[in-house]
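Tokens in:
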């Protein structure tokens, strides 16, 4: 895991409190200057990661959710939460590149038996009816 991802995790664990995050990164007690440098480093790294994620999310919304019809009565917060969930789990949904149904490693060959002699199911008439019912159907059709 990269340092940036570790910084993001530490910030998430301590709910964004930089002081706790820096204390976790500094093994030894650090000077004020080192403390400030660590703080700036963490802030810079997390901003870079956040901006990259936002760019990818914007592309996802522009490309994948163009035709999506999201309930207009949702609040802005709920709409953003829904988009976050869709973005986070976008691999669970079908796309142009990977449609659903193609599960690698679980391919199945289905062979249809259409050669003579036909299987009993194929020998049956399409709409089985007794002779009396067949007469009534023919009268009704004419």
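Residues out:
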């Amino acid at each position: 895991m990269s340092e940036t991802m570790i910084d993001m995790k530490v910030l998430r664990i301590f709910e964004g409190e930089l002081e706790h995050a820096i204390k976790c990164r500094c093994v030894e007690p650090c000077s004020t200057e080192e403390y400030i440098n660590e703080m700036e480093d963490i802030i810079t790294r997390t901003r870079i990661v956040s901006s990259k994620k936002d760019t990818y999310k914007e592309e996802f919304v522009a490309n994948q959710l163009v035709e999506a019809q999201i309930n207009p009565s949702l609040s802005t917060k709920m709409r953003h939460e829904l988009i976050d969930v869709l973005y986070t789990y976008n691999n669970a949904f079908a796309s142009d590149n990977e449609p659903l149904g193609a599960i690698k490693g679980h391919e199945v060959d289905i062979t249809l038996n259409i050669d003579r002699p036909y299987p009993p199911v194929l020998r049956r008439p399409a709409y089985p009816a007794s002779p009396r019912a067949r007469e009534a159907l023919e009268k009704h059709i004419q």
